[in-house]
Backbone:
């Protein structure tokens, strides 16, 4: 004991604090999966992984391309003559062909409405490294970034752990489909100012993780003008840009900037191939800044997370193959759309709704009807049931800092069709079972509903109360109905 | 275009417009260190015997090009192990494209453990479970600093040292490096007295020392730490309750007859406190694969390993590269041949180069390893100072068209020393290099009085 304590004292604060965020429920579910992973034959009762946003749907296309293009790989007869030069290449600028190919790909993903400059392409260790590098370049320890919630659980680590920078969430609400409003941004900014918190910028994911929605032009313009007004930065994590599978189309911040009066030095994009191409193992992260100093600084920092030259070489070739890229993007969208449809339809049939989404590798599922009460505690209880009884690893909204309890992110791309069926069956069974149990609870819930009604008529809707987790979300109190509905009552109908 | 924009940035920053972080302001500035300036110049106008004979000869980047033929031969004999690997003859990208353990696959760790053991003469066994793989030795060093020290703390580092340490340790961690000066009088050997002095002085100024950062074999000098010195360092570290980071990236680049002793070997045999020792390794030097980004943190401290594993989220080895290397590193016969041949060729180049410099009355420090020699050109500088040294460096680069690393970039306390990497050369390039040095210092009398 004594030795361990002394041992830990030998370590830094960073090594011993929990700003890495791995103690969050987001990762608990993964642990549950790791210890009991589903397999259709060997472990049909195992936990199905629906918490990992991976995209293997188009691996067959990639395998085919690799097989047909042996000279793109330095470890084949055709590519061997390049081996020496590639193996020795460690320049942090990155291979020119790689940067050109990535710039072209990013342009394509944005619908060819923007041309990206290969000289602004800076490498990093995955998008994880890219987000962290961006923060290292833009903020000092103790500064803060505004982050619209719900947001990617990994931001807790990527934006904060080693940088010492804080996150100030900007809570978005289901009442307007979690849109980021100027008013919410302004309010969060003012509040931070009053508390002497130095806001250095805003970071968004577009398409959104966990919502799976694309930001519309108006919201994008509003964000750009907000940061220009306040002279703070905007980091747009566009890692899911090519996972858009139906309209409306993806609009990069780069596109929006083109016909706006804004300060380009404030705009930075984070990109990666982990989601769009399904290559998380390759560790390809990109920082693309319109600010020269940030580009220079990030490039020097890229030494800490350069992309393997072998990988750069392969991707330079693959992403320059226009026909392949066109076909891949089309197929990928098709397969994602189909998978998305299968799931959302299946859920609809049992009365589970999801936020209307057209991108990402997941959907944002509304389980509020199944909550015993609208609290984070109840959400956690429900989540434990889903993990342990239903055996699905889904991610609870609280791990995304969602201010409304009851939402869950469900990843749909990282499994085969058979597993999809099993997952849907399990959800259907659980929901129907839940409805039966609710009937027994009806009397209890009526009494509870009475109490709520009495309470709510006395309450005012001042914004500070909205963060109080014990208060029902205002959405539940429909403006069209004079009487608030109990969620349990709703589930019955 | 870049220049103008930067200037306008400077302007706008000065009137409080766009604020980036404090560290970014200093990092974004153009490189002032001759180490980087020289590298840039050499890469802009690289020498090629046939196509660009007047280009800059690169002697400032410690790269080993001597044994690529062996690696290419291995590749051509072991094809089919492409990036996707074999799976009953079918390609299977699923295994490498998806998320992998961020600290490296167990297969690669096993292969790396075997390789490291082999490289160090079989004198020590490495445990894969104590290994964390990173995207190069650069993030390995940075990661360890993040784990072992807080912002404002410091590491002691013997000088002269690898210029990259200034980036690896200081850029983002906020940790300082305190030089522990070594001198030519004893061939730049480290002494505990010097360590102690530096420790006490730093403490007086209110800075907390968290550890010692060593490179063994040393860069840029190329000498080794003796077994006795390793014991002494470990004793010192225990007495002061600090860590030891031993960067052993050149362990397999031996050309001398001295025996290399790893920290791991010493810990194995004696009863030292293992919890404070961490070894860094990588494939950039010994196996000439700097582009692939493969580094190792090897520690005996479970808490450090646990933290380092989480930090590899930011710097993981690319999966296709992991797959390729497992095959290569596991081929014991190949590795054996490679190590033997590499040593022979290193010995040869080293001997030729050092003899060549001797012919110009330039002597080198005694060294047994590395891809470079540490040359004393103090007699050729106009004034015995950093200024004089940099003037000579500039002459060598711009007149002589050779890029060497001046000692001041390595924080050497004695002016006039230069690191010259010889492993990017072919034998026939050596006379060209010597001629260019001669030309660059033509009017220096000492050179003309060469023996």
Residues:
């Amino acid at each position: 004991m004594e030795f361990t304590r002394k041992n830990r004292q030998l370590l830094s604060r960073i090594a011993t604090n929990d700003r890495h965020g791995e103690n969050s429920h987001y990762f608990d579910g993964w642990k549950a999966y790791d210890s009991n992973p589903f397999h259709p034959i060997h472990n049909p009762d195992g936990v199905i992984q629906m918490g990992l946003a991976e995209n293997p749907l188009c691996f067959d296309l990639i395998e085919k391309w690799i097989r047909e293009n042996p000279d793109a790989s330095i470890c084949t007869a055709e590519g061997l003559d390049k081996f020496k030069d590639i193996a020795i290449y460690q320049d942090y600028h990155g291979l020119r062909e790689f940067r050109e190919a990535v710039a072209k790909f990013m342009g394509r993903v944005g619908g060819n409405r923007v041309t990206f400059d290969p000289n602004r392409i800076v490498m990093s260790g995955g998008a994880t490294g890219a987000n962290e590098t961006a923060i290292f370049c833009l903020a000092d320890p103790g500064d803060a970034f505004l982050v619209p919630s719900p947001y990617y659980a990994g931001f807790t680590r990527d934006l904060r752990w080693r940088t010492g920078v804080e996150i100030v969430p900007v809570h978005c609400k289901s009442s307007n489909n979690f849109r980021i409003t100027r008013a919410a941004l302004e309010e969060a900014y003012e509040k931070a100012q009053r508390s002497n918190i130095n806001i250095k910028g805003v970071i968004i994911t577009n398409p959104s993780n966990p919502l799976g929605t694309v930001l519309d032009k108006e919201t994008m313009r509003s964000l750009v003008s907000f940061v220009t007004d306040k002279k703070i930065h905007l980091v747009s994590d566009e890692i899911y840009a090519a996972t858009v599978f139906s309209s409306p189309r993806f609009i990069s911040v780069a596109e929006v900037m083109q016909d706006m009066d804004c300060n380009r030095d404030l705009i930075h994009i984070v990109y990666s191939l982990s989601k769009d191409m399904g290559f998380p193992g390759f560790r390809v992260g990109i920082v693309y800044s319109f600010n020269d100093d940030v580009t220079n600084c990030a490039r020097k920092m890229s030494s800490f997370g350069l992309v393997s030259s072998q990988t750069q070489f392969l991707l330079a070739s693959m992403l320059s193959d226009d026909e392949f890229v066109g076909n891949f993007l089309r197929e990928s969208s098709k397969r994602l759309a189909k998978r998305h449809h299968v799931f959302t339809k299946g859920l609809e049939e049992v009365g589970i709704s999801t936020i209307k989404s057209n991108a990402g590798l997941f959907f944002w599922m509304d389980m509020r009807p199944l909550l015993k009460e609208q609290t984070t505690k109840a959400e956690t209880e429900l989540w434990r049931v889903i993990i342990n009884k239903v055996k699905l690893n889904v991610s609870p909204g609280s791990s995304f800092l969602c201010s409304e309890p009851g939402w869950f992110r469900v990843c749909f791309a990282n499994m085969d069709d058979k597993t999809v069926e099993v997952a849907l069956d399990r959800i259907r069974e659980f929901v129907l079972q839940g409805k039966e149990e609710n009937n027994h609870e009806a009397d209890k819930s009526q009494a509870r509903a009475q109490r709520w009604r009495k309470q709510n008529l006395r309450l005012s809707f001042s914004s500070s109360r909205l963060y109080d987790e014990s208060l029902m979300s205002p959405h539940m109190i429909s403006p069209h109905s004079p009487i608030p509905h109990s969620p349990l009552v709703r589930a019955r109908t | 275009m870049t220049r103008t924009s930067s200037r306008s940035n400077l302007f706008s920053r000065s009137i409080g417009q766009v604020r980036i972080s404090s560290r970014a302001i200093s990092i974004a500035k153009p490189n002032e260190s001759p180490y980087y300036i020289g590298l840039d110049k050499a890469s802009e106008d690289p020498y090629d015997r046939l196509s660009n004979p007047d280009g800059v000869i690169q002697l400032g980047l410690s790269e080993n090009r001597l044994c690529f033929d062996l690696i290419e031969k291995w590749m051509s004999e072991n094809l089919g192990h492409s990036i996707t690997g074999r799976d009953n003859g079918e390609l299977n990208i699923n295994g490498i494209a998806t998320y992998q353990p961020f600290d490296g696959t167990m297969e690669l760790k096993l292969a790396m453990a075997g390789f490291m053991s082999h490289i160090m003469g079989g004198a020590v066994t490495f445990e894969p479970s104590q290994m964390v793989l990173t995207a190069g030795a650069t993030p390995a060093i940075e990661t360890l600093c993040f784990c072992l020290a807080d912002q404002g703390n410091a590491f002691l580092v013997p000088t002269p040292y690898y210029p990259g340490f200034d980036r690896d340790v200081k850029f983002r961690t906020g940790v300082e490096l305190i030089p522990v000066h070594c001198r030519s009088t004893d061939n730049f050997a480290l002494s505990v007295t010097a360590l102690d002095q530096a420790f006490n002085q730093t403490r007086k100024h209110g800075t907390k020392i968290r550890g010692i950062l060593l490179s063994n074999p040393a860069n840029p000098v190329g000498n080794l730490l003796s077994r006795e010195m390793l014991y002494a360092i470990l004793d010192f570290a225990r007495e002061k309750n600090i860590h030891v980071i031993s960067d052993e990236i050149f362990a397999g680049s031996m050309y001398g007859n001295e025996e290399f002793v790893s920290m791991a070997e010493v810990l194995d045999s004696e009863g030292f406190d293992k919890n404070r020792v961490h070894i860094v390794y990588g494939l950039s030097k010994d196996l000439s694969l700097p582009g692939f980004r493969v580094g190792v943190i090897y520690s005996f401290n479970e808490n450090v390993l646990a933290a380092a594993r989480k930090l590899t989220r930011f710097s993981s080895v690319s999966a296709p590269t992991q797959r390729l290397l497992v095959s290569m590193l596991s081929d014991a016969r190949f590795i054996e041949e490679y190590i033997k041949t590499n040593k022979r060729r290193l010995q040869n180049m080293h001997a030729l180069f050092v003899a060549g410099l001797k012919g110009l009355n330039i002597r080198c420090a005694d060294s047994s390893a590395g891809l470079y020699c540490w040359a004393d050109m103090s007699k050729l500088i106009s004034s015995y100072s950093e200024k004089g040294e940099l003037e000579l460096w500039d002459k060598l680069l711009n007149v002589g068209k050779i890029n060497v690393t001046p000692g001041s970039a390595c924080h050497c306390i004695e002016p006039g020393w230069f690191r010259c990497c010889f492993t990017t050369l072919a034998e026939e390039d050596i006379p060209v290099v010597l001629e260019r040095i001669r030309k660059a210092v033509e009017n220096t009398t000492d050179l003309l009085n060469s023996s």
